[in-house]
Amino acid sequence: MNTAPVFIVCVADIKCRVKETENINLNEETSIFELKQIIRDTAISIEHLVIEATEQGLGTCWVVWYEQKEIRPLLGIPNDKFVVGVITMGIQMSIQNKGLGRILRI
């Protein structure tokens, strides 16, 4: 993971479903139904990103083994946002070892 050239931090914003978020602290224990909806929606979007990266010949990996109280401060993400996943992305080692890596132009 530490050698991946790209890390994409995928964050869900509860404000798209709930307008009053001043007293909301989102974490793994939150029972807010709208949080479950935005996590689902964000996860769907992330998977589309992963599928397209694979189509482009890139390797990806979901990183989700963390707690919100640890990752948000590390990345400067406010408490009213929820980090759904971190996606590492790069040229797969099997392709790199064969010298077949290519530049992705976006």
Write the SSE topology.
Blueprint (H helix, E strand, L loop, with lengths): L5 E8 L19 H23 L2 E6 L4 H8 L5 E11 L1 H5 L9
Antiparallel strand pairs: 1-3, 2-3
Describe the structure.
- The chain is an alpha+beta fold.
- It has a single domain (6-97), classed as NADH Oxidase (3-Layer(aba) Sandwich).
- The protein is 34% helix and 24% strand.
- A three-stranded antiparallel β-sheet has the order 1-3-2, with helices on both faces.
- It is elongated and about 45 Å long.
- The model has no long low-confidence stretch (mean pLDDT 83).
CATH superfamily: NADH Oxidase
CATH top level assignment: Alpha Beta
The CATH topology is: NADH Oxidase
The share of residues in extended strands comes to 15-25%
How many domains make up the coordinates? 1
Specify the overall morphology.
elongated
Overall pLDDT score: 83
In quaternary terms, these chains amount to single chain
Taking pLDDT < 50 over at least 5 consecutive residues as the criterion, the unreliable ranges are none
Instruction: List the helices and strands in order.
Output: EHEHEH
Précis, in short:
The chain has 106 residues and is of the alpha+beta class. 34% of the residues lie in helices and 24% in strands.
